[in-house]
Amino acid sequence: MSSHALSGEASATLIAALYPDCMAATRAAQLLASQVSLADWQLSVIHPGDPFVINKAEPERRGIWHTVLRSHGWLGLAGFAIGLLGGGVMVRMDWFGAGGTPGTVLATLSAFAAMAGLMLAGLISLRPDHGYVLARLHQALESGQWAVIARPANALQKRAALAALDSSGGRVLRSL
């Protein structure tokens, strides 16, 4: 489980390195495994035509749903609270006559701010940073390249995996 309050995934980062053939990808995976302590689910080699690409690149299906629920819960509540706070300030200061209809001001601002929080949570849940990596990965696999996928669980693993894959000669793609 992630230590980040909005994520339910053990690994929020996706790192892919692209190689021209099986031999180069296998060497890179061996180098990565020898330099970085990764669990089996955190390291994958993907070949062109592999039917399990998405399962290897995004192995945490349950974690993604936890991310959806956590981010929407926390950011929806945070938006609601910020809206109440902002509405309270407006009512207290009687900004543009807000003191005359305090209930309406508080309800409207808290609802709009909660919706903004929920929309931000939706963006976080969609993981556009993963989408970029996955799109490039699919293009490379279609052109006959091989890929090594690393799913580091912390900053130390992320730095070590990036260093190992950079030194292996592959084209490295990564999410946030």
State the share of residues found in helices, binned by percent.
55-70%
Tally of helical runs: 6
Radius of gyration: 22 Å
SSE-based structural type: alpha+beta
Low-confidence spans = none
Assembly form of the protein:
single chain
Q: Tell me the number of strands.
A: 4
How does the overall form come out from the CA principal axes?
elongated
Nearest-integer average pLDDT: 81
Strand and helix order: EHEHHHHEHE
Main beta sheet strand tally, sense and closure: 4 strands, antiparallel
Q: What percentage of the residues does DSSP assign to strands (E)? A: 5-15%
Task: Please explain how this structure is put together.
With 176 residues, the protein is α+β, with helices and mostly antiparallel strands. The chain is built from 6 helices and 4 strands, in the order E-H-E-H-H-H-H-E-H-E. It has a 4-stranded antiparallel sheet with strand order 2-3-1-4, sandwiched between helices. Helix 1 runs antiparallel to helix 6 and helix 3 runs antiparallel to helix 4. This is DUF423 domain-containing protein.
